[in-house]
Task: structure prediction
Amino acid sequence: GQQVMQIPQYQHVQEGEDFTTYCNSSTTLSNIQWYKQRPGGHPVFLIQLVKSGEVKKQKRLTFQFGEAKKNSSLHITATQTTDVGTYFCAGPRVYNTDKLIFGTGTRLQVFP
Amino acid sequence: KAGVTQTPRYLIKTRGQQVTLSCSPISGHRSVSWYQQTPGQGLQFLFEYFSETQRNKGNFPGRFSGRQFSNSRSEMNVSTLELGDSALYLCASRDASNEQFFGPGTRLTVL
Result:
């Protein structure tokens, strides 16, 4: 079946350092979404990218969607302790756009 | 608008029992999806309902079932509980956009 893998699984950074998580799908995705889940919380939608090669920014966060629409990345510049949580990518397959497949997630820990 | 609500928030059951979880989507949202989240398996898609019909199904055994009512509220049922069913069960609703709005989840513990 379709798999969406994320690396790294865990990342510990010092506050102020940058952070990147990579998302790779075995099949072409219709779009890519990113969610953040704080410890003890539930996933919260961050953004959606639809176009091949698309890049979007939200303050310190930069999201990219690969040219082949099979991979994506989330980069955080100058991390803060409020960035702590698990970041998930998620995407529906091209031929079944209603079924969202979540990535394995990257847990970010930021030390002050 | 009120967010997605799930009841109960916590549940403890024993093996062999069955359980029903409830989800009320955001008003106006007709799609409701259910996910199982465990430390080892991450977020696994269970099923999605739209206008009272199951539109998609994940790779879970038949012990996992669900339904949706005319007011878009949804329930999921797990019969003959196993220890491995211990997890956080998340419900998410969406409208015509792809953005999923998650509820707080029901944490199920099977003893």
Summary: Chain B has a mean pLDDT of 94.
